Amino acid sequence: MSALHPVYRVAQKVRLVYWRVFKPRTYGVKVVALGDGGTVMLVRHSYQSRDLFMLPGGGIHRGETVLAAAERELREETGCRLGNARIHGEFFSAAEGARNHITVVTGTASGEPCVDGREIIEAAFVPLDPLPANIAPASLRRLIEVRDGLPPAAEW
């Protein structure tokens, strides 16, 4: 365990309190990065729901396009590259307090997963069928949409 894990957990708690009080508008991206042989890249964070796999992703920087943010986030969190990127859908979530606008991007992943051990504690290609049981609910919904060729749902 990295010495920074407790710092990330405290920072996440502070962020959630800030979001609940001030309800800022945020813009983020989640990436469905498909690998070889019917797999998808998932990550586990050091600071939230550490037992659950989630889609890689994060905030969109000022002046950055959604696709550029998806490519950057996948590279930062997993060390992998994103190819053939396209937008799957746009979603809104206020579950954590912020007014979070989330764009889901799909594409192909290349490279071997490598994590920093601080923010991300695991990155792995996992089978799309069957999907592992320990996937965050919103990530699971997006994976099923992409895997089964379904249109994006109306809600996150």
Which features characterize this protein?
single chain; 156 residues; alpha+beta; six-stranded mixed beta sheet; globular
Structure description:
There is one protein chain. With 156 residues, this protein is α+β, with helices and mostly antiparallel strands. Strands 1, 2, 3, 4, 5 and 6 form a six-stranded mixed sheet that branches. The relative contact order is 0.23. It has three helices and six strands.
Give a quick precis of the structure.
The chain has 3 helices and 6 strands. With 156 residues, the protein is an alpha+beta fold. It starts with a helix and ends in an 8-residue tail after the last helix.
